[in-house]
Design goal:
The protein is mainly alpha-helical. It has eleven helices and seven strands.
Length: about 270
């Protein structure tokens, strides 16, 4: 039940001198993290997405303390929240909360400092490359096979679909070497394979999100991506992208760190794609 942490690891782009999260990606990412929590709880059989409300079907704690807290909030919110409302109320601090959890796990090293305006900035100094490669390997299994045939593969598919929705393809597959995999990620499904409830729901301005859905993806993931698509479109105005109306200012351009090259054939963040 670590889909959110895995998404954040995918978003962190290691390079020769800097490790960074692109500002536009960070603006999208917090909503995808919120959606990943619901996906994990749904796959654990604790919630279902009703027609209008998120319904808690089993309120017992889960193995992940953070998700247990999310489950508790869902179960005690009155009236029960709708999916759209729950996603829209995503706190701006959610990405930083996930970064802190990765820091507690020694998966990243972070330097915090205040800029001239008094805002706290976060430099990512190092990232656990073996763990990130393991997440990329799971993504590869979906992107290069294009299907899911087991429970574990379904979880990998959920990771891939949410990563696609959050715009993480260039982070996972940067530069020229990643071109083919980015195209595969964009072509999870042709238009005739889209889930019927979502095929017509994605706005023209963000129709790429619809391409993330496949017949192999669970219906709950399709519902989440449909809602994310609408949410992202609402924040995309005047051609400025999602970040036009969102504050993603808690990140600096990245800290320096000796991370070396990305050793699994995915390239590194210092050479293109971004």
């Amino acid at each position: 039940m670590t889909t959110g942490e895995d998404l954040l690891l995918l978003a962190i782009v290691p390079g020769r001198r800097t490790i960074r999260i692109k500002k536009q990606v960070e603006a999208r990412l917090r909503f995808a993290l919120r959606a990943s929590e619901l996906a994990d709880l749904a796959m654990a059989g604790r919630i279902v997405f009703g027609t209008r409300r998120i319904e808690v079907t089993d309120s017992r704690r889960v193995e992940n303390r953070h998700l247990s807290n999310v489950l508790h909030r869902l179960g005690t919110t009155a009236p029960p929240p709708g999916l759209n409302d729950w996603l829209r109320r995503t706190p701006r601090s959610l990405t930083i909360e996930y970064l802190s959890r990765l820091e507690d796990q020694k998966a990243v090293r972070v330097r915090r400092w205040r800029d001239a305006g008094g805002r706290t900035r976060h430099d990512i100094l190092s990232v656990d490359l073996p763990r990130r490669r393991a997440v990329l390997a799971r993504l590869d299994r979906v992107v290069r096979a294009g299907s899911a045939t087991s429970s574990a593969a379904d979880r990998d598919m959920t990771l891939a679909v949410l990563a696609r929705a959050a715009g993480l393809a260039p982070a996972a597959y940067p530069g020229l070497r990643g071109t083919l995999d980015r195209r595969r990620m964009a072509a999870f499904a042709a238009a005739d394979r889209l889930a019927p409830a979502t095929a017509g729901a994605a706005p023209v301005s963000d129709e790429e999100l619809a391409a993330a859905l496949t017949a192999g993806a669970d219906a709950l993931t399709g519902r989440l991506v449909s809602e994310l698509s609408d949410l992202y479109a609402d924040f995309t105005t005047g051609g400025h992208g999602l970040s036009h109306n969102l504050d993603a200012g808690s990140w600096s351009e990245g800290g320096t760190g000796s991370t070396g090259h990305h050793g699994s054939g995915h390239g590194d963040g210092g050479h293109g794609g971004w």
